[in-house]
Specification:
Elements: E1 2-11, E2 14-20, E3 24-29, H1 36-48, E4 67-76, E5 79-88, E6 94-97, E7 100-102, E8 113-116, H2 121-125, H3 128-142, H4 146-169, H5 174-217, E9 224-228, E10 246-247, H6 253-274, E11 285-290, E12 293-294, H7 295-298, H8 301-322, E13 329-333, H9 341-351, E14 356-361, E15 375-379, E16 382-386
Parallel strand pairs: 3-14, 3-15, 8-13, 13-14
Antiparallel strand pairs: 1-2, 1-4, 4-5, 5-6, 6-7, 9-10, 9-11, 11-12, 15-16
The structure holds adenosine-5'-triphosphate and magnesium ion.
Adenosine-5'-triphosphate (ATP) binds at residues 12-13, 30, 32-38, 59, 61-63, 334, 360, 362.
C-alpha cells in the first residue's frame, strides 16, 4: 500500500499540513527540530496507535490546542480509502474510515507501516517491555483480532491484581479466593492465546532477522530469536531470566495452559503476599542472541543497530508476505546518519523493492542517491518547497 496524501491539523509543530506523497522513496529533509520526525510519527501512529517516542498521546497534540488530526489517503491496487484519527486532550480519541466512525483500536486493520528510528536501539539494549510492545504491535498488524485479546488480557490482569491486593490488605478470606480461581482461568485462557501467538510470530520472524542482519551488517553473526516464558521460570523475578524458560519453535496451547496453571498454583502464596500477578505474557521477553550470546549485554553499538534494524526489516517482510493489501509503508527516521557508507548502500538495497519508503534526514548527502527521490523540504512545521 502507499499513502498518496497526508493531512495534519495541530499535530506536534504542524498547524496544518497538506502533502502529496509518491510511490517508492520519499525523502524529507530539513535541519534539526523542524518537524521531519513529527511528520512520519503521525503515520506510525495510524498503524500502531502509539508513538515511537512518547507513551501518551498528549504530546502529539500541538501545544495550546485541544485536538490533533491525522488523515491519510491510502491506496492499494487502484482503490483508495481515507484513514483518519483525531487525538483529543480531554476526551477519547476518534477514528474514521471514509468519514464513517470506527473503533479506534480497529485502525491498524486499514493501514500498516513499519517505522525504524534511533529509539529502536532500545529493542536490543533496553527493558523487556519494549520488546513485548514490539511483538504485540506486530501481532496486531498481522492479526487485528489480537488487539482484543491483548486488551482483554490486560483488563483481566488488572482486575486480578486488584483482587490480590485487596486480599492482602483485608487478610485472605476464603470467599475471595473463589473469585481468584475464576480470574485465574480467564488469565490462563487469554494469556495462553497471547503466548502461543507471540511464539508463532517469533518462529516466523527468526530466519528473516538472521537474513536481514547479515544483509545489513555484511556479516553472519547468527542473529537468533527465542522467547523467555515467565511461566516456565524457576523464579518469578524479571531480572533473573532463566535459560530453561527460553522457548523456540511452535508451542502447543494445551501444554502452555497447563504450565501457566501450574505456575499460578506454585506462586499463589507469593502472589498473595506481594499483591501482584508474577507470571504471564506481561512478564515475558523476546530474547535476542548473536553468536549464541545475549545481544543485550554483548553486542557492540554497531551490532545492536544492525540487530534493531534487522528486527524491523524482518517485520516488514513478514507483514508483506501475508498481506492482502500490499506492503506496509516502510519508514526510516534518521537512520542513514548513523550508518557507514557500505551499510547505507546495503540498507538502500534491502528497502528498494518496497512499494513506498519514507525517509527523514537532516543531511541530504547522508542518503544514498537511489533513495533521494521525491524530496520534500521541511522547515518549522511547513513544507518549504518540493525540490
Ligand atoms: N506538541 C507539540 N506542539 C508544538 N510543537 C511541538 C510539539 N511536539 C514537538 N514539537 C516541536 O517539534 C520540533 C521537533 O520536531 P521533530 O522531532 O520532528 O524534528 P526533526 O526535524 O525530526 O529534527 P531532528 O533532525 O533533530 O531529528 C521541536 O521544535 C518541538 O518543540
Ligand atoms: Mg528527527
Amino acid at each position: 500500500m502507499i499513502v498518496t496524501h497526508l493531512t495534519l491539523s495541530d499535530f506536534r509543530n504542524y498547524t496544518s499540513l497538506d502533502l502529496e506523497l509518491k510511490a517508492g522513496p520519499n525523502l524529507f529533509v530539513g535541519s534539526n527540530g523542524q518537524g521531519k520526525t513529527n511528520l512520519v510519527e503521525s503515520l506510525g501512529y495510524l498503524s500502531t496507535l502509539g508513538s515511537h517516542r512518547v507513551s501518551t498521546d498528549q504530546a502529539m497534540i500541538r501545544q495550546g490546542q485541544d485536538s490533533a488530526i491525522v488523515r491519510a489517503r491510502v491506496a492499494h491496487d487502484g482503490r483508495e480509502i481515507l484513514v483518519e484519527v483525531q487525538l483529543n486532550r480531554a476526551s477519547a480519541n476518534r477514528a474514521q474510515i471514509n468519514r464513517g466512525a470506527i473503533k479506534t483500536r480497529d485502525l491498524p486493520r486499514y493501514f500498516s507501516s513499519v517505522l525504524f528510528a534511533p529509539e529502536d536501539l532500545a529493542l536490543v539494549r533496553g527493558e523487556p517491555s519494549g520488546r513485548r510492545r514490539f511483538m504485540d504491535e506486530l501481532l496486531v498488524l498481522r492479526t487485528p483480532r489480537m488487539s482484543g485479546v491483548i486488551a482483554d488480557y490486560e483488563r483481566v490482569l488488572k482486575q486480578r491484581n486488584t483482587l490480590l491486593k485487596s486480599a492482602r490488605s483485608s487478610g485472605i478470606k476464603e470467599g475471595q479466593l473463589g473469585t481468584l480461581d475464576i480470574w485465574d482461568e480467564r488469565l490462563v485462557a487469554l494469556g495462553t492465546e497471547l503466548i502461543v501467538a507471540r511464539s508463532t510470530l517469533v518462529t516466523e520472524l527468526s530466519p528473516e532477522v538472521a537474513r536481514h542482519y547479515e544483509a545489513v551488517a555484511g556479516d553472519d553473526h547468527s542473529a537468533r530469536l527465542s522467547t523467555y516464558l515467565s511461566i516456565l521460570a524457576s523464579t518469578p523475578d524479571d531480572e533473573m531470566q532463566d535459560d530453561r524458560a527460553t522457548a523456540s519453535g511452535d508451542l502447543a496451547p494445551e501444554t502452555i495452559a497447563e504450565s501457566f496453571r501450574a505456575a499460578l498454583a506454585r506462586l499463589r502464596r507469593t502472589e498473595l503476599d506481594r499483591g501482584l500477578t508474577l507470571v504471564g505474557p506481561h512478564r515475558d521477553d523476546l530474547v535476542l542472541s548473536l553468536n549464541g550470546m545475549p545481544a543485550r549485554g554483548y553486542a557492540s553499538h554497531g551490532e545492536s543497530w544492525s540487530f534493531a534494524l534487522a528486527l524491523k526489516l524482518a517485520s516488514a517482510t513478514v507483514l508483506r508476505r501475508e498481506s492482502s493489501v500490499g506492503d506496509p509503508v516502510l519508514i526510516l527516521d534518521d537512520v542513514f546518519a548513523e550508518l557507514d557508507e557500505s551499510r547505507r548502500g546495503r540498507l538502500a538495497g534491502a528497502v528498494a523493492d518496497f512499494e513506498q519508503v519514507l525517509i527523514t534526514a537532516a543531511v541530504f548527502d547522508d542518503v544514498p542517491t537511489a533513495l533521494a527521490a521525491n524530496v520534500v523540504r521541511i522547515r518549522a512545521g511547513e513544507v518549504v518547497s518540493d525540490a
